[in-house]
């Protein structure tokens, strides 16, 4: 008796090539925008401009990383822009005014490290509210985070009656002189915001790919009911992703207040759109269960370079908004096309195996 090795059926080469190109779409888009703006905008690739763009990209990338985890679970977080504004105001208030204890009349001032810690806790607290609304009260993520968007923005406005907290240069007496360094300082020539992004990005990528919690996040997004039946605490997983999203938004609020040496309650408006665009462009599926931190960061670079490049070309801010909206739509359409193509290839493989 002779045996013959049976080779696994191969899908059509044209479909396989199309799928490879779709999966690499974010890198292709990044190369395309870099080439276009390097030719269309003078000094686009200058060292100074690249550093400035990287700092802008970092702000969006922080939000997009948190948004990626939320979207992977099948949710959405519309409140991140308002959390940025609220946390910036919290940091500014603490730098300028400290906290007055009503019953004693004393005012407590905090140093820079303590202010950063308190502000991060405020961002996480808003994430907890989002998580509780979604997991305990069964409010749809869109509605829950839309509500906290308005609440957080309103609290930011109330903190100063709509005014700006200016001159956040700090005080030597209270240990806040280093506050502006967070946004303007550098280590080894690398801006602090970039270094912070590297730390958060690597930590998020490790969590997503190498930890049980990361696997649970993807399982919840892939099939929430199956995840619950397998013993995963779905509510806790969702709480975590919204808390982490709030944490990332708080980082952005601190950095912006530090860079401007001032905080304004309108800071962060529409930031959620850029974060969603970067995550989706980076391959995160709006239906949940799929997305990578590396792809999201590349997507943030595409959105950031697109925004700064359009500014350098003198394109109206109104048209910039239109273009970003079109990018989000195009990214979702391409993602849906990729899913249909993957399903088609899977069916063809099954049909070939059944012959």
From TrEMBL:
Subcellular location: Cell membrane
Superkingdom of origin organism: Bacteria
Main location: membrane
Record's bilayer topology term: Multi-pass membrane protein
Gene Ontology MF terms: transmembrane transporter activity
PANTHER family attached to this UniProt entry: ABC TRANSPORTER PERMEASE PROTEIN YPHD-RELATED, ABC TRANSPORTER PERMEASE PROTEIN YPHD-RELATED-RELATED
Name used for this protein in its record: ABC transporter permease
């Amino acid at each position: 008796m002779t045996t013959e090795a049976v080779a696994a059926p191969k899908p059509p080469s044209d479909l396989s090539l199309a799928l490879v190109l779709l999966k690499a779409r974010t890198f292709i888009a990044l190369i395309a925008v870099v080439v276009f703006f390097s030719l269309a905008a003078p000094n686009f690739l200058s060292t100074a401009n690249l550093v400035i763009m990287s700092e802008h990209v970092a702000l969006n990338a922080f939000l997009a990383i948190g948004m990626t985890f939320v979207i992977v679970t099948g949710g959405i977080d519309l409140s991140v822009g308002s959390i940025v504004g609220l946390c910036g105001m919290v940091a500014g208030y603490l730098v300028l005014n400290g906290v007055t204890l009503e019953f004693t009349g004393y005012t407590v001032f905090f140093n820079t490290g303590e202010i950063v810690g308190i502000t991060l806790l405020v961002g996480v607290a808003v994430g907890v509210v989002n998580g509780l609304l979604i997991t305990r009260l069964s409010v749809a993520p869109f509605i829950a985070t839309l509500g906290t968007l308005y609440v957080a923005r309103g609290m930011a406005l109330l903190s100063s009656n709509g005014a700006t907290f200016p001159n956040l240069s700090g005080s030597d007496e209270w240990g806040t002189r280093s506050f502006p360094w967070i946004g303007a300082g550098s280590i080894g020539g690398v801006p602090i915001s970039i270094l912070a992004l590297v730390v958060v990005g690597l930590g998020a990528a490790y969590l997503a790919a190498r930890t049980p919690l990361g696997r649970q996040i993807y399982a919840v997004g892939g099939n929430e009911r199956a995840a619950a039946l397998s013993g995963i605490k779905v509510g806790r997983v969702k709480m975590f992703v919204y808390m982490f999203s709030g944490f990332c938004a708080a980082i952005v609020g601190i950095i912006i207040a530090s860079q401007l040496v001032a905080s304004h309650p309108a800071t962060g408006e529409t930031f959620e759109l850029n974060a969603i665009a970067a995550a989706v462009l980076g391959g995160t599926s709006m239906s949940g269960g799929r997305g990578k931190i590396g792809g999201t960061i590349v997507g943030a670079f595409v959105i950031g370079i697109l925004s700064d490049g359009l500014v350098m070309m003198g394109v109206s801010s109104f048209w910039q908004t239109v273009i970003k909206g079109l990018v989000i739509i195009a990214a979702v359409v391409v993602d849906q096309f990729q899913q249909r193509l993957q399903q088609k290839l899977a069916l063809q493989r099954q049909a070939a195996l059944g012959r």
